[in-house]
């Protein structure tokens, strides 16, 4: 397990952590049990303890990445590149991932019913269709809810990217809401009090805020207000933590930072690896835009090139550090893009068939599952729904995907949306 | 100010005079990031102690541009007609009567009315987008005028604050940002939206203008609506229907809508009205008679240099001039994989509206005009109903139909009678949306204590009161700014007229020299890297622009305070959120925005200094929470101040504590 080097320990912070433990009760937080008994399904196989989800925003073209159609008109300017396995081809912007094919399980037969980014992303993240009357939890919050936290201080869930469209905790407790990180290079911002503020005075301020706000919290208890009470508790705990260096990628050697790629996604994945090392249950990193309605063939080499470099660096780094045997890496997107190239040399939304990738713990790599037809238009074999895909992720983490969880309104929900796991890709 | 604060300062130091002055002084520094410059200028009597002070924060000054209030409003806003007040109140009464009937039918308990101070805070936030400052709060709370609530509503609705706040609303809906694509300069359109709100242009006319505008954006900024979806003619129709008619037909772009009645064919038929609209000049335009002038100019510029590189500003400027909205007669065809039996793939689609008919007045107009006339038509009530529902939600926190953009047969309004009444009102008011807001603000229902609503509850919400909700990111930003800046309008977005003078290039005759000259102008003004640097110089404070949220170039970076609190990335319609996260709390604890409040020269700092004694507690409460402290609160605060190392530190703690209450960020 990762632990910060002793010389980096800030004494002020350790003093503060003592002090803050005594303060948490003052924040008006109803203490929730931090620990949930894991609900492991029967089965002896090694499962994923942690997950990194790489979310490709804007719908990644399957034909130009993991499901090329060389020789067909629909292929356009993208070429294909060979993987280690004869007959298995990737788009030519993914040479590094192609050479790592034995780590990957590529699902080429995903299909969904919506071509709307917002709905599609929500469905991919939750396995449930977005409706107005209830919020569904995203996979990260589900996992934290079902498996608990690993590091006591660090959050159970981190999202590197834009939190606005994230389903967050849905109907689950607000303690499992992911902590959003905007800029991986800056890590968790504003984590330190200004130098002139003493610990004692910080404590005074918290106590004062608590006292003068008691009436309001009482009056409007049981809502978003409670979520904020919880967030105050989490923030104070984090400020007092000795494990904050997990958020600081400047601690990584320059060479490592370069390997991941000097861009937001690259640095975000490096941060994800540090957080996994530090004991964060689930880290999601967003990357895009993939919404290439125009000039797709000038955009693909750039976007897919970054993906290739970063994801391959992440997988080999996790492997070197011995983390890949306990960490599942998922690459997902909301839908595919049309085989037909439009008049602006782009591709439009295509929910009919598309590709996603699984690797690492709980997964049997080196295989293609399912297939699209000759032009990448529809599923040709082994159709996989979004719920099937999410159920596979949950199962790879060893969870019981048949267990029903009840939302406050009494409706039952399942982790993975009650789909059928793809047994062939599970280790 | 100097004389008063000098006195105040003595008093502060005097509290603990028995202690070594040095200790008192360093404690004061803990309270306020005290700039030595401001310090020595205004407090000569303590200057001598400065050298004895321990290490202190580096001197930071608030930018000059925010320190002095403007002598006149930053721009004109259409006045609110006071003579129609009786009619407004009567209309408000009708809404109340409708709701009361409903409550009786469903046994809903009446919710208590809000106190004056709660009303004050709510209308400032919901009509002006910010909390009232100390002076505004005191003035309202001490006024004995009988119609002071109605008068406050009217005066807010004709203030720049209202324009700024409703701009933020529309910016979220319309996905407003400066550069939706690298070479599209959208700034004039953003300024145009602000102008239309300020002049209170009737909503139907405003929308019609955007749907039919043509030309370059600095000639006719209303074209920005079409340009926002450049290159995406099908999503354009989806977005337009969603925003203005409250229906989601997007699924039907690819296949018959699974949960609604729309077919793919209907989607294409509707799209056929507008897919002929172009957003870029091309070979069919006179400007391109002698080839593509954009490529030509860039090529010539390249040839002139030794390394073949042309500046980013030059390229952006020349390419930006290629964008212009024009209609042409292109036909739309069904997709090549059209799978239904009522037509064949690649068939040409004839334009047809989703319901009703194109109004006869537009029957002979071009297709785009026909579409626009149909959208804003009074014959069908959906356009009016949609905006009625939106404004109701804006004020009450929840739509009668939710989500507001998903009207469909199996998503029924929670109170159809109310929705139809509000729709009637919109039509009666000839789409004067501000008047509708004025009416709603004057209802007794609006002036009731906020309630908690659980969207997953099976019981529909009966609107016994507005729904409790957190401030939007912009409301929070602008409220904090109210505590800081005497002038929150250090600059404003450039208008079409301002930009035209700097960026327009007539592609039909522009020579390289013209392009170079214009590009140089552009590079030194509105080219974003330079523009952003200039803004930082003008009103930057630790990297934050101290200006109203409505004027900050968007999308703001992910780590910015506004984004942390949920401002939209301006990619999705109504992408803003108010969910709590840990980084928000850290920003409130330790972020630069909180600490600005504790800088000399900030509004709240000065106000507290002016009181100079324990009365400062009232000032802090009125400034931050818009009410005086209760007896209990006052005891707590006084005790805090008396037991702190210094009074200054005590006040610093009190300010910080109030900002970190749930009461501050929620609107009750």
Describe this structure in words.
The complex is a heterodimer of chains A (427) and B (668). By secondary structure, chain A is of the alpha/beta class. Chain A has ten helices and 16 strands. Chain A has helices at residues 11-21, 95-99, 117-126, 139-147, 199-219, 224-239, 254-260, 264-278, 296-320, 386-396, and strands spanning 50-56, 80-82, 89-91, 104-110, 157-160, 179-181, 282-287, 327-333, 336-337, 349-350, 354-360, 367-369, 371-372, 379-381, 405-406, 412-413. In chain A, the strands form five sheets. Chain A has an eight-stranded mixed sheet, sandwiched between helices. In chain A, helix 7 crosses helix 8 and helix 8 runs parallel beside helix 9. Chain A is globular and about 70 Å long. The two termini of chain A are 24 Å apart. Residues 1-44 of chain A have low confidence and may be disordered. Chain B is an all-alpha fold and 668 residues long. In chain B, helix 10 packs antiparallel against helix 16 (367-375), helix 12 (233-245) crosses helix 13 and helix 17 (382-396) packs across helix 19. Chain B is globular. Chain B starts with a helix and ends with a strand.
Can you lay out the helices and strands and say which pair or pack?
The complex is a heterodimer of chains A (427) and B (668).
Chain A: H1 11-21, E1 50-56, E2 80-82, E3 89-91, H2 95-99, E4 104-110, H3 117-126, H4 139-147, E5 157-160, E6 179-181, H5 199-219, H6 224-239, H7 254-260, H8 264-278, E7 282-287, H9 296-320, E8 327-333, E9 336-337, E10 349-350, E11 354-360, E12 367-369, E13 371-372, E14 379-381, H10 386-396, E15 405-406, E16 412-413
Parallel strand pairs in A: 1-7, 1-8, 4-12, 5-6, 5-7
Antiparallel strand pairs in A: 2-3, 4-11, 8-11, 9-10, 13-14, 15-16
Helix pairs in contact in A: 7-8, 8-9
Chain B: H1 2-15, H2 21-31, H3 36-42, H4 85-106, H5 116-128, H6 134-142, H7 148-157, H8 160-174, H9 187-198, H10 203-212, H11 224-227, H12 233-245, H13 264-271, E1 278-280, H14 293-304, H15 312-320, E2 323-326, E3 332-333, E4 348-349, H16 367-375, H17 382-396, H18 416-428, H19 433-441, E5 469-470, H20 473-484, H21 496-503, H22 512-523, H23 528-539, E6 540-541, E7 544-545, H24 561-564, H25 582-590, H26 592-596, H27 603-611, H28 616-625, H29 631-643, H30 647-659, H31 662-665, E8 666-667
Antiparallel strand pairs in B: 1-2, 3-4, 5-8, 6-7
Helix pairs in contact in B: 1-27, 2-30, 4-18, 4-19, 5-7, 6-28, 8-9, 10-16, 12-13, 15-22, 17-18, 17-19, 27-28, 28-30, 29-30
């Amino acid at each position: 397990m990762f632990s910060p080097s002793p010389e980096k320990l800030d004494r002020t912070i350790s003093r503060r952590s003592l002090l803050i433990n005594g303060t948490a009760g003052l924040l008006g937080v109803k203490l929730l049990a931090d620990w949930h008994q894991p609900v492991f399904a029967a089965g002896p196989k090694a499962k994923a303890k942690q997950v990194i989800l790489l979310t490709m925003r804007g719908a990644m073209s399957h034909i130009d990445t993991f499901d090329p159609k060389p020789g067909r008109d629909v292929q356009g300017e993208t070429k294909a590149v060979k993987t280690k396995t004869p007959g298995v081809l990737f788009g030519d912007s993914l040479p590094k991932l192609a050479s790592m094919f034995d780590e990957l399980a590529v699902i080429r037969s995903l299909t969904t019913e919506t071509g709307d980014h917002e709905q599609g992303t929500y469905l991919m993240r939750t396995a449930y269709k977005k409706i107005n009357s209830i919020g569904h939890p995203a996979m990260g919050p589900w996992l934290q809810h079902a498996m608990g936290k690993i590091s006591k201080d660090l959050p159970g869930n981190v999202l590197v990217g834009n939190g606005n469209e994230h389903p967050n905790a849905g109907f689950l407790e607000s303690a499992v809401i992911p902590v959003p990180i905007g800029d991986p290079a800056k890590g968790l911002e504003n984590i330190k009090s200004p130098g002139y503020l003493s610990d004692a005075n910080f404590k005074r301020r918290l106590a004062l805020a608590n006292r003068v706000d008691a009436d309001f919290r009482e009056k409007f208890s049981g809502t978003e207000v409670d979520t904020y009470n919880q967030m105050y508790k989490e923030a104070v705990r984090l400020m007092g933590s000795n494990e904050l260096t997990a958020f600081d990628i400047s601690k990584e050697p320059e060479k490592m930072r370069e390997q991941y790629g000097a861009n937001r996604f690259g640095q975000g994945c490096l941060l994800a690896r540090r957080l996994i090392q530090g004991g964060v249950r689930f880290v999601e990193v967003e990357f895009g835009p993939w919404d290439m309605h125009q000039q797709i063939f000038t955009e693909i080499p750039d976007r897919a090139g970054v993906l290739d470099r970063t994801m391959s660096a992440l997988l080999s780094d996790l492997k070197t550090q011995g983390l890949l045997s306990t960490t599942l890496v998922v690459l997902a997107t909301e839908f595919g893009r049309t085989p037909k190239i439009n008049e602006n040399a782009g591709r439009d939304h295509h929910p009919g068939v598309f590709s996603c990738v699984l690797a690492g713990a709980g997964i049997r790599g080196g295989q293609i599952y399912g297939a699209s037809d000759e032009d990448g238009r529809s599923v040709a074999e082994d159709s996989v729904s979004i719920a099937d895909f999410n159920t596979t992720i949950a199962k790879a983490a060893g969870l019981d995907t048949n267990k029903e969880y009840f939302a406050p309104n009494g409706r039952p929900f399942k982790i993975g949306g009650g789909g059928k796991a793809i047994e062939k890709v599970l280790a | 100010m100097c004389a008063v604060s000098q006195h105040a300062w003595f008093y502060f130091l005097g509290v603990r005079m028995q202690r070594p002055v040095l200790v008192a002084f360093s404690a004061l520094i803990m309270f306020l990031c005290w700039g030595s410059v401001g310090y020595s200028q205004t407090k000569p009597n303590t200057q001598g102690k400065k050298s004895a002070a321990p290490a202190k924060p580096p001197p930071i000054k608030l930018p000059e541009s925010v320190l002095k209030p403007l002598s006149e409003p930053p721009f004109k806003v259409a006045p609110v007609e006071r003579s129609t007040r009786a009619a407004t109140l009567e209309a408000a009464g009708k809404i109340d009567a409708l709701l009361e009937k409903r409550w009786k039918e469903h046994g809903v308990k009446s919710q208590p009315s809000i106190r004056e101070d709660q009303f004050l805070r709510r209308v400032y936030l919901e009509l002006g987008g910010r909390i009232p400052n100390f002076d505004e709060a005191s003035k309202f709370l001490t006024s004995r005028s009988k119609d002071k609530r109605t008068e406050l509503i009217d005066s807010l609705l004709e203030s720049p604050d209202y324009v700024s706040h409703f701009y933020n609303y529309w910016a979220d809906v319309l996905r407003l940002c400066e550069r939706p694509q690298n070479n599209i300069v959208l700034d004039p359109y953003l300024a145009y939206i602000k102008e239309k709100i300020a002049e209170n242009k009737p909503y139907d006319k405003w929308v019609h203008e955007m749907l039919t505008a043509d030309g370059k954006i600095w000639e006719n900024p209303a074209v920005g609506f079409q340009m926002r979806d450049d290159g995406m003619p099908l999503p354009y129709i989806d977005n337009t229907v969603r925003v203005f008619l409250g229906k989601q037909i997007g699924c039907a772009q690819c296949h018959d809508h699974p949960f609604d009645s729309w077919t793919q064919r209907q989607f294409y038929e509707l799209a056929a009205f507008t897919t002929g609209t172009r957003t870029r000049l091309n070979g069919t335009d006179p400007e391109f008679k002698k080839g593509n002038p954009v490529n030509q100019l860039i090529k010539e510029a390249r040839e002139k240099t030794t390394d073949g590189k042309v500046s980013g500003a030059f390229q952006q400027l020349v390419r930006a001039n290629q964008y212009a909205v024009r209609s042409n007669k292109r036909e739309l065809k069904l997709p090549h994989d059209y799978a239904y039996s009522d037509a064949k793939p690649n068939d040409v689609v004839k334009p047809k509206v989703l319901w009703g008919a194109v109004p006869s007045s537009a029957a002979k107009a071009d297709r785009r005009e026909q579409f626009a006339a149909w959208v804003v038509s009074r014959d069908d009530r959906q356009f009016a109903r949609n905006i009625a529902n939106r404004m109701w939600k804006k004020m009450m926190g929840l739509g009668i139909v939710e989500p507001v953009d998903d009207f469909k047969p199996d998503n029924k309004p929670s109170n159809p009678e109310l929705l139809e009444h509000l729709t009637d009102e919109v039509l009666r008011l000839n789409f004067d949306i501000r008047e509708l807001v004025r009416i709603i603000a004057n209802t007794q229902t609006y002036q009731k204590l906020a309630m908690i609503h659980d969207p997953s509850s099976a019981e529909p919400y009966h609107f016994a009161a507005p729904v409790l909700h957190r401030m939007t990111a912009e409301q929070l930003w602008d409220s904090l700014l109210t505590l800081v800046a005497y002038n929150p309008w250090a600059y404003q977005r450039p208008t079409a007229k301002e930009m035209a003078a700097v960026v327009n290039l007539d592609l039909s005759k522009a020579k390289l020299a013209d392009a170079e000259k214009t590009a140089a102008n552009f590079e030194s003004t509105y080219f974003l890297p330079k523009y952003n640097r200039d803004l930082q110089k003008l009103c930057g404070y630790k990297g934050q622009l101290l200006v109203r949220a409505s004027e900050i170039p968007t999308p703001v970076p992910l780590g910015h305070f506004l984004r942390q609190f949920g401002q939209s990335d301006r990619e999705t319609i109504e992408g803003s959120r108010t969910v709590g996260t840990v980084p928000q709390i850290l920003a409130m604890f330790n972020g630069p925005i909180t600490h600005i409040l504790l800088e000399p020269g900030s509004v709240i700092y000065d106000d507290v200094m002016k009181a100079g004694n324990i009365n400062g507690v009232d000032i802090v409460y009125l400034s931050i929470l818009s009410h005086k402290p209760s007896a209990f609160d006052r005891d707590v605060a006084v005790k805090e101040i008396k037991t702190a190392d210094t009074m200054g530190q005590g006040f610093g703690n009190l300010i910080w504590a109030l900002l970190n209450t749930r009461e501050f960020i929620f609107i009750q």
